[in-house]
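Hello everyone,

My group is preparing for a crystallization screen and wants a predicted model to guide construct design. The compound we'll soak is fe (ii) ion. Before spending weeks at the bench, it would help to have a computed complex in hand. I've included the protein sequence and the ligand's SMILES below. Output in structure-token form would be ideal because that's what our pipeline reads.
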Amino acid sequence: MNDSLTSGVEFNPNEPTQPEVEIDMEGGVSPYSPPDAYNPPSKEEEIAYEDMHPFLQEMMDEHNEYTKELNAFEATIAMIEGGKVDREIDERLRQFFAFLDDKVVTHNQEEEKYLFAAISKKMTDTGDHSKTDDSFNVIDILEDDHVKAIQMSAVSFNMFALFSRIPDEKSRFIILDVALNQAKELLELLKVHIFREDTIIFPYAQRNFTNEELTQIQQKTKGEKE
Ligand SMILES: [Fe+2]
Ligand SMILES: [Fe+2]
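Reply:
Good plan to model first. Here are the tokens for the complex, ready for your pipeline.
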């Protein structure tokens, strides 16, 4: 069986070639940002920031800091797409990836170590997990996001770095395209991820754990840091 994408299509050299199609991440449906991502059917009533435990507030504060960095990164991408490739862009990219490496990775580890573990256990104990697969819950999705984010940022970072070193213009722009697409997917992934934690997971923790339990999780998490 020939399952090549071009099977059955004959190349006619006299036919005008198709204009190059820009990949529009905004308009299309991305697997990292499904249409209902920001309006999940199971969304419970929100809890005000002031009513959250200080540990959860701290995690939300970190999310706000990340969102600022993500917005700056989004602006950088728009600048590159507008044709700007210079020292300033280089510096902006460097600063964003350094931030990811430094702050976001630590934040993710802190979430996973005790908070996610405790939530996962609570969900399993109370049956608050997916009906289709007993061992699968929203925590698995969020942990998976953490891994994907590292992979995507590695690809994007390396492609941006490679772009500046390739002399052949055509190859350079193919590489830049890969870098930009990975960067956009990373952005979408992190934005939805933050939204899910702020609106689903942290409120779940607030509702299902006592203040003492949350303080314990906070102490264990922060104790590891020193
Ligand atoms: Fe996370
Ligand atoms: Fe987070």
